[in-house]
Each structure stands twice: as structure tokens, then as C-alpha cells.
Amino acid sequence: MSAIDWKSYTPILIPNIKDYHKIDVYEKHGGYGGLKKILKDQTEFTPEKVTNTVKDSGLRGRGGAGFNTGLKWSFMPKPDGGPRYIAANGDESEPGTFKDRVIFEYNPHSFIEGAIIGAYAMSITTVYVYIRGEYRSWINMMQKAVDDAYEKGYLGKNILGSEFSVDMVVHSGAGAYICGEESSLMESLEGKRGYPRVKPPFPAQKGLWGRPTTINNIETFANVPHIINNGSEWYKGIGASTHAGPLLYGISGHVNRPGVYEYPSGMLITDLIHGAAQGVRGGKKVKAVIPGGSSTPPLRGDSLEGVRMDSDSLREAGSMLGTGGMCILDEDTDMVDFLWRVSHFYHHESCGQCTPCREGTGWLEKTLLKIKRGDGTVRDLDLLLDLCSQMEGRTICALADAAAWPVRYTVTRFREDFEARVKKTVYALA
Amino acid sequence: MQNYEFTKEELAKIDKIIAKYPNPQPAVMPVLWMAQEKFGHVEPEVQQLVAKTLDLTPAHVYGVASFYTQYYKEKKGKYVLDVCTSFSCQACGAYDTLHELEEKLGIKAGETTEDGMFSIQSVECLGACGYAPMMQITNDVYVNHLTSEKLDKVIEGLKQDKLPEFEPIPLVQNREPAEEK
Q1: Is the Cβ–Cβ distance between A108 and A131 less than 8 Å?
Q2: How much is the pLDDT for B179?
Q3: What percentage of chain A has pLDDT greater than the value 70?
Q4: Which residues of A touch B126 (CB under 8 A)?
Q5: Does B116 lie at the interface with A, CB-CB under 8 angstroms?
Q6: What is the DSSP letter of B19?
Q7: Is A130 within 8 Å of A188 (Cβ atoms)?
Q8: What's the pLDDT band for A290 if we cut at 50, 70, 90?
Q9: Exposed (0-12), middle (13-18) or buried (19+): which is A229, by Cβ within 10 Å?
Q10: How far apart are CA B33 and CA B48, in angstroms?
Q11: Which helix (H) or strand (E) is A126 found in, with range?
């Protein structure tokens, strides 16, 4: 199924089935079938084979970095009898991103099944599901789904009568964007301030409590049962060839019908705006599109023709897929205001560990506030770009980069908006 | 000074939480949540109770409590109205909503009404970008698609201790509505 035929696409991650969040309904529609298939015939479905199937399917992480999931799983060292962990990342704090919440509410069991299959493939002993604290209602839904899965014997000791056992613990965050960064998430799970760790060692070597750990996004796991049920070839046939599978596109901003949509990867941005989301409010023109959360460089509205929502096409266009949380801004948007708000966010959320980020995000915000108030000069625009260069790639985690990219690309791509707001520099010749 | 204690039942619940992790330290976040639920905030005295209960240093618990924005390190209003003003909401008029709310309650973001009923905060992305402008009430219920009338209704309800009902996420892609949640 290619993205060209998106109009006839039937969603599988958020299927149109009533009460699909209930375990009985999920089971009735073949739910937990993938897990049963694996556990019934473990000589056929060895952990290596499951990992390879996921690897061959081309499933890439849905949290933003887009790394091949099966390949990530294969980095786990051989079991040594000690504990090993999965940390499922449901922190979902990147502004513009609101897709995992839909899975918690409408399809929690396909995530649980996917995580159990992942646990089997990597010989995991406990899965921790880290969900941002703001999602209290959805944490409760997830807890209920986990309790139901325990009751039915899909979790706990000797799952479905097999030798395989795994536990699942739902853990609530408490409001920190940085905890979506994988090493910060682990620190937070260990009951500390969420300071990102220096890598290497990578989580597969030394993760939670110093033990091998794999971190995957919620949506990533929700894809896994479909791969096991239908095979990697089938999965590879959905969407863009280098970024296979369905994607949850969260569309927000100035569109007529914002919301979360499931379509094959590689959708034309213009199809998503004018087709799925039914166009821009008031029939206005698109000024900018932020394709995958606040850290992805904004694209100009006049450069969207032919750009597809997959990592290659977006890289060519000068941006990134990120989380697939798109924000559409219309022609009346003040890009200075927009960028100030984005910088305010990163300043607020910098954990303060690394100087370039702690100080840099503050200076970005201050300088943008100055421009917003009309007190800026043309030199401030160059100062902004210089600040970005001082931040990018100079910190432990990618927050500084995430803060710098939108500034760099908004200032360069929408420079006329910024020049219009700064003071005129007129020098009288003597 | 108020004396903060956990009951026997609560201590038993804490033991169950600790059992989910390899050591007691990871329980600090869930127990801070429990304490905030019970006392309405986690002022330093409450942090000390959490430290004593989990056998951690007060400094460690303070470090954790101060890192995460959802823990109230000082007393807040009975209902804390968190208006998301991050860029998707900003684009959909969240600052107008925030200022309207400030006018209605006669306080600014970051302040609490004199009767201790309401606090207003301008917060970062709450992950409801498609349903903007929106707010969250005391770390709990999400209220989507805010309008002036809806704000009035919510405030009136809260004055009578009635939280707005849970709003299911509106799924727009050809769906039948689900039954109860």
C-alpha cells in the first residue's frame, strides 16, 4: 500500500473498531495472536528470528531518531542470567506531538503485545512504561490495560503456560521534557533528577541500574504485532521504501480538521494539509510547516510541493521527520512570535547540565524577546545564528541541537519577517 | 507547623510500589505523587516525610522534587488551571484564552486567588496540540477546544467542586464513537 492510495487506507494502529481498547474486543479481532504464535512454537520462532523479522520489516523508531528497531534490539548482549530491561518511552513531550496518547486510549493492548514480543526477542525480565505525568487519565487507562493483560496471563510468570516470564510496570513522570531523552528517562526511572548520561556506554551495555536496556517508543511497539502476524514483506509494502509502515500523523495549527491521522509513511505534506486535514482555515495560504515537532526545521509554505513525510524526502527538503507531529502555520503567523515561544520552551526545559545549552537557550530567548519587542538590530540576527553554532553538537544530549535548529532555520528561511521587526540601521555620512 | 504523616494503609501501598523496582530509590517519584495527592503540595516538610519513609536523604528528595514541574513546591490553589501556551496552542489563540482566564479570575498566571480556590499557570506543551486551545486542571482532567463560554462553565463547575467530565480524544478519521471508557 503506497501513500498515493491514502484515501483507501484502512488504519491498523487506531482501527475503526468499537471498544478496541478493551482486552476482550482486542482478542476477538486477533489480538495477542502474534504472541501466542511465537510462544506456541519457540523452536521455530527463536528470539533471533523474531529480532530478524522486525529488522527485515524496516520498522524505524517512531520517537524521532528513526533508528531501525530490529537492529537496535540486536545490540543487546547475550543473556547472562541477570535482569534486563525495556523502557518504553511514552514521555511524548515534544511540542506538536500528541500521537501516543491516542494509542493509550484506543489501542493499549497492541502496544502491550508488541512490548511483550520485544521482551521475548531480547530476553527481558521487566518492561517499564514511562508515561509523562500530565497524562494522568491515560496512565490510568494504561494501568487498567496492564492489569487486564496480567489477569489473562499475557504478563507475569510462565506466560500462556510457556517458560517465558516478563513483568510490566507503568511509571509516571512529573513534567520534564528532557525525560523523553533515553538516558534521562533512565535516570528518572531510577528516581533521580533527569540528567542525560554521557554515551557511550550505550543503554544496551549499561542501561537501567547498570544492566542491558532497550528504549523504544510506544508507537514503535504498537507496530510489532502486525509485523509478526503478517510478516516483514507485508510490512515493507506499506508506505515509503526506506521508512516502512503506517505513521500516526498529528496535525495541528491553522487547519480545518486537526487531529491524529494514520496513513502510510511518505504522505505528501500537501495531501495531509489539503486532503486529510481539509485545508487551511479561512482558505488562507500556508506560511510554514513544522513537520515533526518543535525541533524539526520549519519548511516554507512555498517549498512544500512534492515533499513527502519520510526521512529521506524531508532531509532533502531541509528538515526531519521527527515524531510526525506537524504544525501548519498560515500566512498571518508572526514568525518572530512563533520562534520566541519555541525558544522559551527550550530555555524552560534545558536541564542545566551543560553550559552551552543552559546559557545558550537563555540567550536565544532573550535575543528573540528583544526582537519581538522591536528593540532588536540586524546584528542580533547574526548573533542568533552564532549562538546556534556555539550550541550544536557541544552538549551531552541533543536538547541544545533541538533548540538551535528551529532558530537557525526560521531565521534563515523567514529572514524577511525578522528584518521587518528590527530597527533600521541608518548611518549619516559626514 | 502541620505534622505530615502517612497512614498505615498508605505505608503498605508504598511497600508495594517499592517492590516494583530493584531498590527503594525509584519509588521517590510515585511517593511524591502520593504525598501531593494527599497534602495538595510537596513543601519541604512533605519532602522530608518522603525522604524518611524511603530512607533517602532530604537533599536527594529535594533534588527530585525541584527538577519536575508538576510537583508543587509551594501551596497552590485548590484548582490549578494549566493553560498550554506552547506553539501549536499559541497559533490557535492560547494567549488570548490565558488572558481571558486571568481577567475572569482577577489574577495573573503564576498567582492564586485570595480565597485559595484557583491558581493559573502558563505551561509547556501538554500533548493536545490538535485540540487547542486547551488546559489541564490540577494535573488531571484535560479540557479541549476552550471558548469563552466553556471557560465560564468550567469555572462555575469548579466553584461547586465539579470537575469537567473526561473528554475522549476526538478521532476524526472515519470513526464510530466508543462507548464508556
Answers
A1: no
A2: 45
A3: 100
A4: 134
A5: no
A6: T
A7: yes
A8: very high
A9: middle
A10: 14
A11: strand A126-131
Phi/psi for B136 (5° steps) reads -120, 140
Interface confidence (ipTM) of the complex: 0.95
- If DSSP codes are grouped into helix, strand and coil, which group holds residue B141? strand
Average predicted confidence (pLDDT) for chain A? 96
Is residue A188 less than 8 Å (CB to CB) from chain B? yes
For residue A125, how many C-alpha atoms fall within 13 Å in the half-sphere facing its CB? Answer: 12
By residue count, chain B amounts to 181
Cell of residue A353, nine digits: 547540565
User: Do strands B118-123 and B79-84 pair parallel, antiparallel, or not at all (unpaired)?
Assistant: parallel
- Does the pLDDT at position B27 exceed 50? yes
What the block records as the C-alpha cell of A52 is 530478524
Query: Peptide bond before A203: cis, by omega within 30 degrees of 0?
Result: no
User: What domains are there in chain B, each with its CATH number?
Assistant: 8-67 (1.10.10), 79-159 (3.40.30.10)
Are A125 and A36 a contacting pair, CB within 8 Å?
Answer: no
* Angstrom distance (rounded) from CA A182 to CA A419: 38
> B140: which 3 cell numbers?
488531571
Give the integer Cα–Cα distance in Å for B118 and A160: 50
pLDDT of residue B174: 64
Q: What is the dihedral of CA B117, B120, B121, B126, to 10 degrees?
A: 80
B181: confidence class by pLDDT, cuts 50, 70, 90:
very low
Bigger pLDDT: B147 vs A4 = B147
Can you tell me whether residue B49 is helix, strand or coil?
helix
pTM of the model: 0.96
Averaged pLDDT for residues A302-311: 96
Q: How far apart are CA A168 and CA A174, in angstroms?
A: 20
Reading the block at residue A350, the C-alpha cell is 534545558
Question: What is the three-state SS of A295-362?
Answer: CCCCEEHHHCCCCECCHHHHHHHCCCCCCCEEEEEECCCCHHHHHHHHHHHHHHHCCCCCHHHHHHHH
Mean pLDDT over A166-172 rounds to 98
CB contact under 8 A, A174 and B29: yes
Confidence band of B113 (pLDDT split at 50, 70, 90):
very high
For B27-52, letters b (16+ CB in 10 Å) and e give: bbbbbbbbbbeebbebbeebbebbbe
Nearest residue, CB atoms, B129 vs list A21, A96, A337: A96
Give the number of other Cβ atoms within 10 Å of residue A390's Cβ: 14
Distance, in Å, from the CA atom of B20 to the CA atom of A95, rounded to the nearest integer, reads 31
- Residue A422, CA distances (Å) to A329, A387, B48 in order: 22, 18, 50
pLDDT tens profile A65-122: 899 999 999 999 999 999 999 999 999 999 999 999 999 999 999 999 999 999 999 9
Q: Tell whether B142 lies on the interface with A, counting CB pairs under 8 A.
A: yes
To test the contact with chain B by mutation, choose from A126, A252, A261 the residue with the greatest count of B C-beta atoms within 10 A, namely A252
Q: Rounded to a whole number, what is the distance in Å from the CA of B133 to chain A's nearest CA?
A: 10
